[in-house]
Specification:
This protein is mainly α. The chain contains 3 helices and no strands. It starts with a helix and ends with a helix.
Length: 146
């Protein structure tokens, strides 16, 4: 698929936009706070994981004809059972969500470590490149001076 000039430029500027966004991120703050995020996720996981799930509702349906008050009580009981079931579902979702948050926090910590390692490598490479450039300029100057 061939790109038109306008499409190429549009994609190029989108990439430049993302680059600008990434440059605006305060990476030092992100790196500094990554362990706090991971610890917070672990605390959430341990707090949620220790809570016992609600007891699933037991079905207490009876086939006996009830008075109006009995019907109202039975309706309330059915409503309470439905709410308990919904609470159990929400608890399971909360456990799954906290597990996901923990995993994402751990991945974020690893990503930050790798980004910091790459930043240090790029700085070292820039230093070596600058040193090689200085040596090349000095050598060229010496060769041309003869």
């Amino acid at each position: 698929m061939a790109l038109t000039g306008a499409t190429f430029l549009k994609r190029r500027f989108m990439a430049i936009g993302w680059l600008a966004v990434l440059q605006m991120v305060p990476w030092s703050d992100v790196i500094k706070n990554a362990p706090k995020v991971a610890d917070g996720a672990k605390k959430l996981w341990h707090a949620v994981g220790k809570k016992p799930p609600p007891v699933p509702p037991a079905n207490t349906g009876t086939g006996v004809q009830l008075s109006p008050e009995g019907q109202a009580i039975a309706a309330l009981q059915a409503h309470v059972l439905a709410l308990e079931s919904a609470t159990l579902d929400l608890h399971e979702q909360m456990l799954a969500s906290s597990e996901l948050i923990k995993a994402l926090a751990e991945q974020n910590t690893q990503l930050i470590r790798r980004a910091e390692t790459n930043r240090i490598r790029v700085l070292a490479l820039a230093g070596v490149t600058a040193l090689v450039a200085v040596i090349a300029v000095v050598s060229l100057t010496l060769v041309l001076a003869r």
